[in-house]
Specification:
Layout (H helix, E strand, L loop, with lengths): L4 E6 L2 E6 L10 H15 L6 E6 L4 E3 L4 H10 L6 H18 L5 E5 L2 E3 L1 H4 L5 E4 L4 E3 L13 H4 L7 H8 L5 H7 L4 E2 L5 H10 L5 H9 L8 H4 L1 H8 L4 H9 L4 H10 L4 H14 L4 H18 L1 H11 L17 H6 L17
Parallel strand pairs: 2-3, 3-5, 4-6, 5-7, 6-8, 7-9
Antiparallel strand pairs: 1-2
Helix pairs in contact: 1-3, 2-16, 3-15, 6-14
C-alpha cells in the first residue's frame, strides 16, 4: 500500500521497515495504512511470534506525521480541514491503539529522530533507544499538542516530567528517555552488529527476553533530566502554564532561563491546552485518551493554530508564527476549555469502537 513501508517475515519475526529517509520517515496516510495492514495480518498468524519496527537509516526512526500534508489539506477548507486530514488522524490513532494492545511482542528500534507520530507507533511496545536517539513531543512548536497517545504516556511519566516535556516540547536523548520511562532498553551503536544478529537469530517469541539480557550489559549514561528533576518538579507542578512561567521567573539558574526562552517561542494557547490535556489524561485509559485527542485535533484545525505554525516553521520558514492569542496573558480558561468541547455525540465518535 505504500512504497515507503517494507514488510517481511523471517524466523518467526514480522519486520516493518520505514523507508522514507528524505522526509525522516514522516508518516503519510498510506504509510499508516500499510503498517496497520501488516499488524492485522500478523495478529493471528501462527508463523509470526513478534514484530520489529525500525527505520532503513540511523538518521530517523520517524519524525512524526507529514505536516506539509496537514498544511496543504488543512488549508483547503480551513474551518474543518479536509476528508483526508480527518482520515489520517482517525486511522493513525487507531494504529496507536492497535500497537498498545498488540497480542504479540512489538519491538521498536528508535534510532535517530523519534518525534510525534514516531512516538505513537513505538510507545505501546518494547522501546529500544540508541546513541543517536533524539526524542520529543514537540507539537507546541507548530501550534499543535502532543497527540498519538501523548495524553496517556506523558501523564504517566514520573513527577512533573510529562508536563515539562509536553508544554516545552524539548528534545531528549537515550538516557533521558530511559529515565522518564519512555524507553526500555539502550543499544549502543558501537554494538549494533550484535543487536542486529540477535534480532535476526532469535525466534520471534523469544525476543523480549533476549533483548533484556542484551541490554543489561549497556549503560546509556547520566540523564540531564535527572540532574534537573528537582527544578522540573518544583516549577512544572505549579498548576497552570502562567503559574509555571511565574515560578521559573523566580529562578536564575541556567535551566530556568533556557526553559523560559524555549516557552516564549511556543504557541501560548497550545501550551495551555497541552497542560490541560496531560492533566485530563492521567485519569483516562488509552482508548479514552485517543478519543479525547481525536476531538481536540478537530478543534485545533478549526482554530487554525497548527496551519499558522507549519507555515512559519516549515513552509515559509520565517520562524515568526502569528499565534492567536499572541501572548500567554491573553489566553483565557474559556479558550482552553472550548478546545475540549465534544465534536461528536459518543455514538458517532470516529474512535468509538476502541476498547
Amino acid at each position: 500500500m505504500s512504497e515507503y513501508i517494507h514488510t517481511s517475515v523471517s524466523n518467526g519475526t514480522g519486520l516493518i521497515v520505514l523507508d522514507r529517509p528524505k522526509a525522516l520517515n514522516s508518516l503519510s496516510l498510506d504509510m499508516v495504512r500499510a503498517i496497520t495492514q501488516a499488524l492485522l495480518a500478523w495478529r493471528d498468524d501462527a508463523a509470526v511470534g513478534a514484530v520489529v519496527i525500525r527505520s532503513s537509516s540511523e538518521k530517523a526512526f520517524c519524525a512524526g506525521g507529514d505536516i506539509r500534508f496537514f498544511y496543504e489539506a488543512g488549508r483547503t477548507t480551513p474551518q474543518n480541514g479536509s476528508a483526508l486530514v480527518e482520515d489520517f488522524f482517525t486511522e493513525e490513532y487507531s494504529l496507536n491503539h492497535l500497537v498498545h494492545f498488540y497480542p504479540k511482542p512489538y519491538i521498536a528500534l528508535m534510532d535517530g529522530v523519534v518525534m510525534g507520530g514516531g512516538m505513537g507507533v513505538a510507545q505501546g511496545g518494547v522501546r529500544i533507544v540508541t546513541d543517536k536517539t533524539k526524542m520529543a513531543m514537540p507539537e507546541v512548536n507548530i501550534g499543535l499538542f502532543p497527540d498519538v497517545g501523548g495524553s496517556y504516556f506523558l501523564s504517566r511519566a514520573p513527577g512533573a516530567l510529562g508536563f515539562y516535556l509536553g508544554v516545552t516540547g524539548v528534545t531528549i536523548n537515550a538516557a533521558d528517555a530511559l529515565y522518564t520511562g519512555l524507553a526500555d532498553h539502550y543499544a549502543p551503536l558501537s554494538d549494533r552488529t550484535a543487536l542486529d544478529a540477535l534480532l535476526t537469530a532469535t525466534p520471534g517469541a523469544g525476543l523480549p527476553g533476549a533483548l533484556s539480557a542484551y541490554a543489561a550489559g549497556h549503560n546509556a549514561g547520566d540523564s540531564t533530566l535527572a540532574a534537573n528533576r528537582a527544578a522540573i518538579d518544583r516549577h512544572f507542578r505549579a498548576g497552570s502554564v502562567p503559574a509555571i512561567v511565574a515560578s521559573l521567573k523566580t529562578d536564575s539558574s541556567d535551566f530556568a532561563v533556557k526553559t523560559l526562552e524555549v516557552m516564549a517561542t511556543r504557541s501560548p494557547l497550545m501550551m495551555c491546552v497541552t497542560h490541560e490535556l496531560i492533566k485530563r489524561g492521567a485519569a483516562l485509559d488509552v482508548a479514552d485518551c485517543l478519543r479525547m485527542e481525536r476531538a481536540l485535533v478537530r478543534r485545533n484545525f478549526e482554530n487554525g493554530e497548527v496551519i499558522e505554525g507549519v507555515r512559519a516553521l516549515v513552509i515559509d520558514k520565517d520562524n515568526q508564527p502569528k499565534w492567536n492569542p499572541a501572548t500567554l496573558e491573553a489566553v483565557t480558561e474559556e479558550m482552553v476549555q472550548a478546545m475540549f468541547a465534544p465534536v461528536w455525540p459518543d455514538y458517532a465518535h470516529p474512535l468509538r469502537h476502541l476498547g
